[in-house]
Amino acid sequence: MPHFEFAKSSHSSGNGECVEVARNIPGTVAVRDSKDVDGPIVVVTPSAWAAFAVHVGQGTGRAPQ
């Protein structure tokens, strides 16, 4: 298993509702719940992460179609 170097967003408010993201493995973006660092890790491609980030930035609150 690759060693991911996770970081919290600079926009994290510290209220426990945050994810951590690792981008240190080429071609991979890993995401985990900051409250459960030993829990599951979601791994996606950089293009999937970029599409997700654009969607979140739109503030629709709905899943991508």
Per-chain topology:
Layout: E1 7-8, E2 19-22, E3 29-33, E4 42-44, H1 46-58
Antiparallel strand pairs: 1-2, 2-3, 3-4
Which residues form runs of ≥5 with pLDDT under 50? none
Instruction: Please describe the biggest sheet, giving its number of strands, its sense, and whether it closes into a barrel.
Output: 4 strands, antiparallel
Rg of Cα set: 12 Å
What is the number of helices? 1
Helix content range of the residues, please?
10-25%
Report the average pLDDT across residues: 82
State which percent range the strand residues make up.
15-25%
Order of neighbouring strands in the sheet with most strands? 1-2-3-4
Shape: globular
Domain DUF397: 6-55
Protein name: DUF397 domain-containing protein
InterPro entries: DUF397 (IPR007278)
Pfam families: DUF397
